[in-house]
């Protein structure tokens, strides 16, 4: 998954997720879907979840801030 310096994560053909990190917190700034996809989000201080949906297809993007400070990203499609 490509990442740019400003925290924009692209999921090819699905959409983008923009995150910022400040200290021990991450903020979901924006989730934008590509044409034909819908998007729903939820987040708290150390986690952001974004679900992209198109018909019966869904792709989940999860960002978790681990206790050691690492940002862990995971993208799962409906086949995972």
Topology:
Layout: E1 8-11, E2 15-22, E3 25-33, E4 38-44, E5 47-54, E6 57-65, E7 71-77
Antiparallel strand pairs: 1-2, 2-3, 4-5, 5-6, 6-7
What does this protein look like?
The protein is mainly beta and 80 residues long. It has one domain. It is 0% helix and 65% strand. The protein is built from no helices and seven strands. Strands 4-5-6-7 form a four-stranded antiparallel β-sheet, with no helix packed on it. It has a three-stranded antiparallel β-sheet with strand order 1-2-3, with no helix packed on it. The chain is elongated and about 35 Å long. It starts with 7 loop residues before the first strand and ends with a strand.
Note the main attributes of this structure.
7 strands, three-stranded antiparallel beta sheet, 65% strand, single chain, elongated, 80 residues, mainly beta
């Amino acid at each position: 998954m490509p990442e740019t310096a400003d925290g924009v994560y692209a999921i090819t053909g699905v959409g983008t997720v923009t995150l910022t990190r400040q200290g021990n917190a991450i903020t979901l700034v924006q989730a934008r879907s590509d044409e034909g996809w819908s998007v729903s989000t939820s987040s708290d201080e150390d986690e952001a979840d974004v679900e992209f949906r198109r018909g019966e297809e869904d792709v989940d993007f999860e960002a978790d801030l681990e206790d050691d400070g690492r940002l862990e990203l995971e993208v799962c499609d409906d086949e995972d």
